[in-house]
Amino acid sequence: MKILLAEDDQNLGDLLANFLKNKGFQVSLKRNGKEAFDEYNSNSYDFCIFDVMMPEMDGFTLAKEIRELDKKVPILFLTAKSMKEDKLEGFSAGGDDYLTKPFSMEELLARITAISRRTHLDENQDDEKYMVGKIKYEPTFRILHLEEGNKKLTTKENQLLHLLIKNKNEILDRQATLRAIWGDDNYFNGRSMDVYIAKIRKMLKEDQSVEIMNIHGKGFKLVTKEA
To answer: Within 10 Å of residue 147's Cβ, how many Cβ atoms?
Structure first.
């Protein structure tokens, strides 16, 4: 399992990362929310552990940004606060659970295991494969299996299609997607994304049950007629 850990306390961050690595996890440690958000959008992760109070971007904001792009990845918050209001804010931000400092390493491990079990996370899963209607898609290899032959996607085509599929039948927020893939949600990047959406629509047109809808003022939604 690949874990993204965001913790600005250097000693605690190093301690947590080393403990989790010794337990067999792959861990990427970032020191603030902005670095963690950039890292999440550059690589694939199975589990997120975020400190709430961090510079650049706090843990709640970080979780909200990630939830715009991925509704399913488990998120565990670490915090020095135990107030009910803070916990409610954490859950409303998209968190799956909450661990109050100080905590034991065994409790952290137990929470990870429990959350993973609840979210049906398969720690030994093969490379991701999806069916977009009748079309097979392999994001790891950036390949769409079309009737006319395999189509190798560009990096941005792959990132955009992957986000659409991971949020299938739900709205993919336009601004969050621009920030994640292009790094900025300005007008020119928005026009560029519209071009990529058109390209992906053209690739998927062989299956007429698949549609990428424009949701005015919000973003896009990948749907199938069966849904």
So the answer is: 8
